[in-house]
Amino acid sequence: MFRNPLTIGIDIGHHSVKAVVLRQKKAQLELAAFAEVVLPASVVNEQHSVNTPALLSAIRKLKKSLPFGAKNVVLALPDSAVISKVIQLDTNLSDDESVFAVEQALSASSPFPIEELRLDFFPLASQSFSQPAQTQPVQVFAARRETVDSRVDAIRKAKLNPKVVELQTHALLWLEEYVAEQQNTSGQWGVVNIGKTRTEFCVKPAGGAAYHRELAFGCQALQGVDLQKSEDDSPRISISSEQAEQFTKQLVDTLKRQLQLYNSTHPRASLQGLWIAGGGQSVVVKEMLERMLGLDVKLMFPFASFERDQKMDMVIDQGSFSQYAVAAGLALRGGDAS
C-alpha cells in the first residue's frame, strides 16, 4: 500500500494543528507518531486562506515530535472552501482539450475568475454497460489558489514535502472505511465529527458520491464550560451528566434534520449506524444517542486499528484521541500518493 515508508497527515484547524504519521509494517499499518499544537489564535481567515508565518511556526513545533524520516505530507481543505461539480466531457478529447473544457464549464458557474483557481478532475464510473458513450461524467474540484498555496507554502518552508491536498470529508470517509474493515463492521454507516464550533456529517453511499454537511454546532454549545482552557478540541474539564445529556439532546436535534434530508435524497442507501469522532465525542451519551436516533452508534478511536509499540500503547491508553480522525484519514490517503 505505502510507496513511501512514512506518511504524515496534517489537519489544519481553527484552534490547533494535528499530525499523524503512519508506516507500513509487514501487512499492517503502524502508528509511528502523532502530535498537536494548540494555536494562540486562529490561523484561518474567513476566505479559508491561512496566515502562512503563524502556520509555519506551528508546523515547526509539530515537526519536533515527528520521526526524522517523515517528509511526505497530505493536507486537507474544508469542504466549504472547495467547489465540487460534475460535468459531461467528450470521451475523445485530448488532455489539453479536457483541461480547456473543464475551465470553460467551471467559469460559467464559479464565483471566482478561473485564473484564481486550482483545479483537479477525474472521470467517474459510467453507469452504462452498452456500447461506448460519446460523453462521460467527470468530477471537478476547484479551490482558490490562495487557499491552497498558503497551506502548501507553510509546509514547504518547514522542509516537508506536500504530496496531496484533499477534502476533509474524504479523510473522514477513508478512516471510516479502514476502521470498519478492521472491525468487520458491515452496512451503510455515516461519520459525525464533532469539533469545537462545527460538526461534520458525511456518508459514502454505495456506488455514489460522498455526501457531506457542515453544521454550526459544536462543543461550545456546552453551557458554563470554559473550552478555551482545553489542550485540543475536546473539553478536558469534567462536566456533569446533566450537561452531557443536554449536549446529546442538542446533537440529536441537529442530526435529525440532516438524517431526514439524507434519507430523502438517498432512499436506497439508508444508514444502519453512525460513527462518532472529533473532540466532542467525549461529551456524547452514546446510549441516549442510539435511542433517540434509532440507529446503532459506535465511538471512533482513530488509533485503535493501527499497530503500536508498547510505549505508544501507554500514551494512547490515557485517552481516545478522537480529535485526530481527520489527520489519521489523511495519513491513510498518503499510502496512495504518487
Automatic annotation (TrEMBL):
Coiled coil: none annotated. Pfam families: PilM_2. PANTHER family: CELL DIVISION PROTEIN FTSA-RELATED (PTHR32432), ETHANOLAMINE UTILIZATION PROTEIN EUTJ (PTHR32432:SF3). NCBIfam families: pilM (TIGR01175). This is Pilus assembly protein PilM. It comes from Photobacterium aphoticum.
